[in-house]
Amino acid sequence: MIMATRYYSRQSNLHSNPRRMWCHRLFHLQSRLQNLLKGGVTCWALQQPNFKSLFPLGIHGHHTASKSLNCAWQQHEDHFELQYANTVMRFDYVWLRDHCRSASCYNSKTHQRSLDTASVDLCIKPKTVRLDETTLFFTWPDGHVTRYDLEWLVKNSYEGQKQKIIQPRILWNAEIYRQAQVTPVDFQSFLETNEGLKKFLQNFLLYGIAFVENVPPTQEHTEKLAERISLIRETIYGRMWYFTSDFSRGDTAYTKLALDRHTDTTYFQEPCGYNNYDRAVINTVPYDVVHRWYTAHRALTVELRRPENELWVKLKPGRVLFIDNWRVLHGRESFTGYRQLCGCYLTRDDVLNTARLLGLQA
Fold it and tell me: Which of 144, 117, 150, 115 is nearest to 128 (CA)?
């Protein structure tokens, strides 16, 4: 889930330390914690295998190659092996039959399979395989023919997916973010142009936070902003939540007290993310497991509270902050005076889908 938050009313009588909201990056923190607890470091490397070594003596099957296409393939006992576009790919025979795109197996209009996967023999193997220009043809024991374009196989193979370029994410700290000088997106550009929306989503995917400036300070405009990229999620706090520090919901967020590092709604069945702050009573594990949990919690808390990993931001009317609760924790200082806050929760799938529609590999 994603949270969009904004402050939009006048404040007065603030103490000498101005009220600030901070964000803390969480990306890869769990894996770092695991290494810390294990006392070890894991590293790995991906190497391009020598294709000649993939065909040792004694393997039964047929092998052919096309010099013009730089393509070679090999039938093994339990899988099909293909080298094309500098990629060595391996396909299970059931997978090859199940993903057939013929008219009887796949509806190209709905993009749904018509073939009953459970009807495919788990020991199936093609009777013949042939290559015609850029297409592989598999003839199965019942005579059915499956054809695959070589580029399609590269795109949809496991090995091809590993090479796929995704939208970059940065493991950042406060100094890295400040040096990047990330500029907020203007409200009108965000609403009216795909370029503005794409720039915002690039920032959001890159850092897990992003800002929109010059937003009219009303709940209606904040809602309009959120709807530009996602459906708004209805929760126990309503569709759009709007409050002052009046303790109306018995929650620290509705006070002037400081809020420690956290993400929201961890008590939901589908929470926004990790929460180091709001926890119920730990009563489902024995004492020795609880003690290990506290040891891990202490190590994680030390990481979370490192000052170099905190980005302090003073929000003001007209500035909206979007937070990816899967990557970034947030909190605030205590304050005096009066404030108003509104925001909402967005569905993560819709945010990522909007990014993909704009050509981002989200």
Answer: 144
Q: Give how far Cα 19 sits from Cα of 151, 257, 311, Å.
A: 55, 11, 13
| Residue 65 DSSP SS3 | strand
Can you read off the two tokens belonging to residue 99? 């993903």
* Helix, strand, coil share of the chain (percent; to 5): 30, 25, 45
Reported as a single tens digit per residue, the pLDDT across 168-212 is 888 888 899 999 999 999 999 999 999 999 999 999 999 999 999
**Window from 93-102, 106-115, 189-198, 279-288 with minimum mean pLDDT:** 279-288
Residues near 210 by beta carbon (within 8 Å), at least 6 away in sequence: 182, 184, 185, 200, 201, 203, 204, 321, 322
Q: How far is CA 207 from the centre of its chain?
A: 12
Q: Tokens 């994680």 identify what position?
A: 300
Please name the helix (run of DSSP H) or strand (run of DSSP E) that holds residue 153, with its range, or none: helix 150-156
Span 295-324, mean pLDDT?
A: 89
In the three-class reduction of DSSP (H, G, I as helix; E, B as strand; rest coil), residue 190 is classed as helix
- Position 252 scores a pLDDT of 62
Q: Which tokens hold the place of 203?
A: 């920032």
Cα-Cα-Cα-Cα dihedral sign, residues 348, 349, 350, 353: positive
Contact criterion met (CB below 8 Å) for 58 and 86: no
